[in-house]
Structure formats: structure tokens, C-alpha cells
Amino acid sequence: GYSVRFDDCTDRNQCRTKLKYCTDGMLLREATADPLLSEYSCVIIDEAHERSIATDILLGLLKSLVFSSRKLNLKLVIMSATLDTPKLQQFFTDPQITSRHVSLSIKNNQSQSSTSSCSSIISNQLPPLVSIPGRTHPVDIIHELEPVQDYVEAAVDCVLRIHTENLGKDGDVLVFLTGEDEISTVITALKRWARENPQVSRVHPLLPLPCYASLPAASLQQVFENGQDLHAAAVDSASSSGAGSALMSVEEETKSAT
């Protein structure tokens, strides 16, 4: 099951729920009510490199549980593609403990080496590191010839250029922006263009969609729906909660940044 803000699809009695997906904020809220996280035998922290406040606090709490006699046999897996793994390994090393079995895996998608060990006895020994080579896909990177004065306006122009150059083709555009105000500006501009160009919109509709963490669940769900329109999703890059994979069939992507 899963648990996010305003939506909990798990068995509250934990009789049928064996695997639970949740945000770092939801797990932190559970930890305030149950500091030992007694309902869990294994905790997996993904995207640890994002270093959100909730994730950092969770890592501190989980370290205390890993080395605590009150929570035995807790398995902790920390996954990241870009995290500084040596520092994290050092963080989870307790030189005062010499005979505790601690099950801790730190996954790094960029490293080429790998180890098969999944547990270790702590005696000034670093936790094991399991490295999995990541797959890369061909990407065409296109830069503006000159710096732009208004990158939000440039993002709108880029979306419209992609849209008009690919009439009749299916695809989506994913635009990363820095906040809700900029997203609202882009969405408004794209909707205005669609109203002012009805002939193009009838042949190849353009559907601008916002995507940021504080949106209602029903609005966020629209981003995942398949349709015939070209979706232009404007995403808050600071708090998108995994919005990099928000669109089901993203074929073209544009990133706008300062």
C-alpha cells in the first residue's frame, strides 16, 4: 500500500499490508508517535541525496535505532544515485559498538564496483556498500545561443516552438521551474496562446498542467492520465516529489533554470 498526505491506502491494523510506500514526511510523522517504528522491520530511504529536512531528520533517528538495543534487527537501506557514500558510511559507523550485527546497505547507481555482503559486525568497520551500474539513455542537449533576460518567458517560447514544430505527433513537454508562481505564469501563458490560436489547438490540442507538491491529489492525477492532447507539465523542481517521472509518455523535455 501507500501513504501520502490526505490519502492512506494501507491496512491500519497492519494485518494485510506487508510493504508500504510513503513520503519522508509521513514516515517522520509516524516516528513522532512511535519513535521505535515498531511496525517496521526494514526501512528503505530512496533519493537520499535530495537532503530534505524530513529525510535528514529521519537519517538521524534511524541511526539511533540501528545502534539501539531497544530496536533489534532493524534493516536499513539507503539508496541514491549521487550521494557522497563515504561520508554517509562514516555517519553510520559507531566506534563504541563492537559486537552488534547491523544490516545496512547503501546503494549508489553510478559506481561500477559492487559487494554482495548485506550485513556486518560493527567494530570501526564501515557499513557495506552495494553499487549498481546505472543505465543511460541518449539525450540531445540544446542551449540558447545567448543568455535570456526572462527565463520563464523563454520556457513558454520553447514549449510553443516544440509544439508547433511537431504538429500531429504525440508527445509531452516537461518544464522545470523554481516555484508555484512561475508555474502559474507559464500555465496561464500557454492557455492564453491556445485560446488565441484555435485553428492550431483544434488540430493539435495543448493541455498545460501544473505539478507541485501542494496540489490536490485529483489535480496531480491529471498528469498521469493518457490522452491525445500534448501535455505541457510545469513542475516545481524544488518540491516535485519525484515529478521527474510524472508523465507516462514523456518524449521531449525542456529544462529552464536561472
From TrEMBL:
Source organism, top-level taxon: Eukaryota
Classification via InterPro entries: DNA/RNA_helicase_DEAH_CS, Helicase_ATP-bd, P-loop_NTPase
Catalytic activity: ATP + H2O = ADP + phosphate + H(+)
Helicase ATP-binding domain boundaries: 1-101
Keyword line: ATP-binding, Helicase, Hydrolase, mRNA processing, mRNA splicing, Nucleotide-binding
Known EC number: 3.6.4.13
GO annotation, biological process: mRNA processing; RNA splicing
Sample GO molecular function, one term: RNA binding
Name this polypeptide is given: RNA helicase
Protein's organism: Erythrolobus madagascarensis
